[in-house]
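Why do we bother with a discrete structure alphabet at all? Because it lets us treat a fold like text: something you can write down, compare, and reason about line by line. To make this less abstract, here is a complete entry for Exopolyphosphatase. Read it the way you would read a sentence in a foreign language you are learning: slowly, and without expecting to understand everything at once.
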Amino acid sequence: MYRSSKRNRFKTLDRWREPVRLGKSIAQSRLLTNDQIEETIDVLKEFQDRIRRYNVDRISLIATAAVRLAKNQNQLVFAVLKETGLQLDIIDEKEEAFYDYVAVRNTMRIKDALIVDVGGGSSEISLAKKGRLKYGLSIPIGAISISDVHLKSNPIKESELVSARKDITRRLESLKWMNTKATFVGLGGTLRAVTSILNREGKRKKNLHNSVITCEQLDELFDKLAHATVEERSHIKELSDGRYEVILGGILIISEIIKKTPAKEIRFSNFGVREGYVFNYFHKMDRQN
């Protein structure tokens, strides 16, 4: 929930999060299940109830990779419209990467940045040079899809890790432009959880935005989590919302991407697609006024 401020800025009035894991079945079936659609509707209705407490001018509802990849995406769009009266807009991969870039540009003083947003069903990678977006794309692998396809044992087997790494590396082969000097900026739930764990263990600031993670820290944490059982990971408070099931897949994607770059550390951004969309919306409103 946001209110416009001066010069296309905004103030956050309220913020809610409710994971529905739409990417859970996408990797293999390319279909959203009826249960997933019903759960999404229930969550949207809860959000509508909270939104009614405010004097809201506009509600925007956007969907990203999981819905974009679903063969029955129209079923979800129709159900949302019928049950809530809201129009669900499915943004394409370039828009998703662009909104990540807009969020980083407006919240971090970085001119050259490789922006990586690992989601459940896809990962967005963007390159900004001298404050301008040069490349932006989405690859159809995310924390959920990699975990579902490759990481099935408990604890994870080494052979499964090898298989997952090969899959990720294959999808990165053509992205030669990643091998350029730029600040590695990481977004998304996987890195939010990783940053939270590392900040707690290091007794560092609770404000996650702009926190720095070294490659060594990432590797050490991954090794510790990979040797733990699912139950053991579920007791880590930063993973308690179900992220314990997919955290390894997410970290694998990040670690394989950073190997393709000269970067030695990751700067975490707590702002992503949602905030980029809001920044862009208020910027357009300012230009029209």
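What the structure line is telling us, in plain words: The chain has a mean pLDDT of 90. The beta strands are 2-4, 10-12, 61-63, 88-90, 113-118, 123-129, 132-139, 183-187, 212-214, 265-268.
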